[in-house]
Amino acid sequence: xxxxxxxxxxxxxxxxxxxxxxxxxxxxxxxxxxxxxxxxxxxxxxxxxxxxxxxxxxxxxxxxxxxxxxxxxxxxxxxxxxxxxxxxxxxxxxxxxxxxxxxxxxxxxxxxxxxxxxxxxxxxxxxxxxxxxxxxxxxxxxxxxxxxxxxxxxxxxxxxxxxxxxxxxxxxxxxxxxxxxxxxxxxxxxxxxxxxxxxxxxxxxxxxxxxxxxxxxxxxxxxxxxxxxxxxxxxxxxxxxxxxxxxxxxxxxxxxxxxxxxxxxxxxxxxxxxxxxxxxxxxxxxxxxxxxxxxxxxxxxxxxxxxxxxxxxxxxxxxxxxxxxxxxxxxxxxxxxxxxxxx
Amino acid sequence: xxxxxxxxxxxxxxxxxxxxxxxxxxxxxxxxxxxxxxxxxxxxxxxxxxxxxxxxxxxxxxxxxxxxxxxxxxxxxxxxxxxxxxxxxxxxxxxxxxxxxxxxxxxxxxxxxxxxxxxxxxxxxxxxxxxxxxxxxxxxxxxxxxxxxxxxxxxxxxxxxxxxxxxxxxxxxxxxxxxxxxxxxxxxxxxxxxxxxxxxxxxxxxxxxxxxxxxxxxxxxxxxxxxxxxxxxxxxxxxxxxxxxxxxxxxxxxxxxxxxxxxxxxxxxxxxxxxxxxxxxxxxxxxxxxxxxxxxxxxxxxxxxxxxxxxxxxxxxxxxxxxxxxxxxxxxxxxxxxxxxxx
DNA sequence: CCGGTTATCCAAAGCGTTTTGGAAGGTTGA
DNA sequence: TCAACCTTCCAAAACGCTTTGGATAACCGG
Lengths: 343, 343
Hints:
2 copies of one chain form a homodimer.
Chain A: H1 5-12, H2 16-23, H3 31-43, H4 50-57, E1 62-69, H5 79-94, E2 97-104, H6 108-117, E3 123-126, H7 134-142, E4 146-149, E5 161-164, H8 166-179, E6 185-189, H9 195-210, E7 220-222, H10 227-238, E8 246-249, H11 252-264, E9 274-279, E10 295-298, H12 301-317, E11 325-328, E12 331-333
Parallel strand pairs in A: 1-2, 1-3, 3-4, 4-5, 5-11, 6-7, 6-8, 8-9, 9-10
Antiparallel strand pairs in A: 10-12
Chain A binds a DNA duplex through residues 4-6, 14-18, 20-21, 24, 28-30, 33, 48-58, 119.
C-alpha cells in the first residue's frame, strides 16, 4: 500500500481537501500550491486508493467482462484474447480498469448479477451473444450500461452493440465462389446457437438461393471452431458421393484443419478445391506473411475491442443517451486458396 | 447498485453490526436471527459492496494480472487465455476477482506499480518472465505477494514461482530424436530473451552435446511463435546444403507452420522428417483428435493457471510463509510426426 | 437473592477518498 | 471607509462496510 491522502496533506501542512482538489484540477486552489502538491505527490508516488475513491464518488472506473467457457469442453474462444487486448488499450488510456470473470456458460447470468450487485463495475461488455440472449434484458432491467459484442436476433428492445456484418460478409464470400463456378459449397460453421454463426449461415443460404442453387444440409457443419473440427469436417465432406468443390470456414483455425485434411487427400488448395475463411486478424494467427494464405473475409477483432470499449465509456458518461450501435464491414481479401471450379 | 447493509438492517429492525456478523458467520448471533437475516439477504439479492468491504478490511479480494503485449507487433500470446481461464476458476471458487491490464512491454513495470499503489489488488501474477527480470525485485521490494508463471534465470533472491521443466522437456525430446537416429535437429524456438525459451535451448544443446553432436547455430531459429514463423523457418532450413531431418518446435502454432512448409515441399511428416513440438494443451488447439497429430511434450497451461492461483492465494493468507515453488514435468506423447531417421 | 457468566445485540469509530458548506483574509468599487 | 466581492483554504460529513468495546438481559450456582 502506498501513501494516503492524509499523510501527503500532513507532510505539506495542508488539509486533505486542498490536496484532493489540487490533484483533481479544481480551480479553487492557488497555482503555486497546486504545483507544490503535484510535485510532492509525484515524489511520494501517490496514487489515490481506487476503492476509497469509488466509494466516495459512486463510480468504480472499472469495466466488467464475463468470458463464457463453452460448457461442453470448457473451450475458451481465442478471439477473446485479442478483443480484450483492444478493449484494454482503450481502458488504460481512459484510466479504467478491467475486471474479468471466466465462467462456464451455465453460471454466466449469475456472474453478471454478482459483479453488479457487489458494485464492482460501472459497465459491462457482453461477449458471445446467442439467439434471444437473456442477458440483454437482464442488464437493461438492472439499468447497467453495457455494450454487446455482436447482436442477438430475437431481442427487440434497443440496446448498444458493435458487430461485424456477418450476413453480408458470408453472402459476398459465397457469391465470390459462385462466380468462380462453384456449385457445391460447404459451410463449416461455428455453433449456430451463437448469433454470429447463425447470421453467417443465413448469408450463405441467401447467396446460394439467389443464384438458384439449392442449399444442401449435407454440406453444412457446425461445431466448436478448432483445427481438429476443420479436419474432421473436410474429411467427412470429401467422402460424400458428390463432394464440395469449395469450403466456407468460420475461423482461421478451422481453415487450418480444412487445409490439412485436403492436403492429406492429395487435393490442391486453390486448384482442385477452394477455401474462404473468416479471419479475425488475431495477432498470433496472421493470414500468411506477404501474400495471404487464404482468401478471407477479414475484420480485426482487436479493433472491435477498442471500439466497443469506447462506445461503452461514452454511454457511461452520458447515461441518458440512446443506445449506440456500430456495424463493421469485413474486407474480402483474395489469397491463394481460391480458384475457378474445375468442370 | 443493490441494497445496502444499512437498508437491509433497517428492514429487519436490526443494527448493521448484527446483520454483518450474521452474514459473515460470527458466533455472537442467535441462530434464529441469523437465519432470518440470511433469508432476507437472499430475498433482496444483497451482496456486500466490494469497494466498501475492502476499504474496511484492507483486503481487496482481487488479483492483478499484467499481460504483456510483445512490443514489436503487439502480439498477445495465446497461452494467456488458457492460463487465465485456469486461474479464473480458482479465483471464483475462492471469491476473488481478477483485474487485468494489457500493456506494451515497455509500460509493464509502471502497470504493476500503479495497480499496487492504487490498492487495487492483494497480489499479482507475473507473466512471461525474461532473463533477469526486474519485476521480481520490484514486487519483492514493494512487499506484495506474487507468483511468477515461469522463472527468471539470474534472479538469485528466492521468490514464488510455478514453471514447467523446460530444460528437461526439451532435453528428453532431443534425446528421443537422437535415439531415432537423427543428427541434424533444428530448434524453432520462441524469443530467447524469454526465460522459457532460453531453458529449452539449453536442454536441447545439452542433449546434443552429451550425444557428441555439435550444436549448429545454423539450425536454431527464434521469433514470436506464430504459424507464419514456423513456415518461414522450415522453408529456410530445408534450403540449407545439409538440411535438418528433425525439428523441435516451441509451440503448436509454430508446428502447424512447420508442417505446412514441409508438406509444401513434398516431405512426408514422420517419415522423411520428424517434428516434435511443445503442446500447451490449449483448449482450442488440441493436438489432434483420438490419435495425436504431433509427437509432443505436453503440459496443460490451464492447469498451471489453476495451480499458480492457488499458490498465490496461499501466500496471501500466510504472508510470513517462505516462497512456494512448483516444477511441473511435461509428458512426452508420441504421435505420428516422428520416425526413424532415413540413412 | 446476588455476583458472575453467557448470550445477544448495538453505537460508534474507522478505512481513504470526495464534496458540501463555510471561514479568513485580501481586494475592489463607490 | 465600508460593504461586497474574490481567492484560497479547511472542517466535517458522507460513501458502505467491518470491528472494537461495550450494554442489556437472561441464566447459573451457591
